[in-house]
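Pasting as-is:
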Amino acid sequence: MSDGLSGTFGSWSDRLTYIAAEGQLVVLGVLVSLGAALVWIRPSIPGIPPIVYGWLAALLLLGPPLLALFVTGARWLRNRRMVEVYHINGVTDEREKYYVEPGVWDEKTVEGPSPYRCNDNEAFEVREFDWHEDTETLVVTGCFFSRLADSKLTTVKAMLEDVHGDLIRTAIAYNRLRGRISKMGVEIERDSINAQAEADERGLMTQKTSVKERFEAAEDDADEWSSDEIKDVGDYEHDFDPTEPMEPITMDTGQQAAATDGGHNE
């Protein structure tokens, strides 16, 4: 570190000040713990009346909660009489909430449209909010129509971004499904060729409806998959063993099937 620069903390007082400013809850907890320890231990020091320890313990136990309650109440009373102003700009993606004094708000300068009332006419929404400290003047810009308020435009923008993300995920899922269907067609063709070759060698009949049944099953599965339910197309894939041949249909099996469907045996 160069000589012109100093450390973050110059002394222990700086460290304690930082802890008290950033960790109010920690400081309050330590004070309450000290008060509870005084009540529990009850130390005795010659020359100090016991009532002093009671006052100190009561101060440490009740002081922090009462202080927090006082600060919260004072802040609520202060904000109650203030004017709530929401600075929302959809272009710069700026969203801030300000509490403006009634006198400053009454003396504000409006450039362009007037501020838009919101929250049951209890607050205002502006597109531009500029506070000039040197002249202590407030310059605001509202919106011409309520439908053009930046809060609504920001909400619509967030909704469209969510819809766009869902459409992208759905397109990716359907793209993977398309590749899976192409792979299924190749597997069906290979399976049918192998079954036909085996049937020709043994002089048997092949099951001509095998391809139709597989495509109908795949179509039923695709109809059941919606864009909300598609998470991973790999979860819907079925195990397929290309080395396992299809069961061929003999002449006797074919005649029995024809009789069952309403036909008759020769």
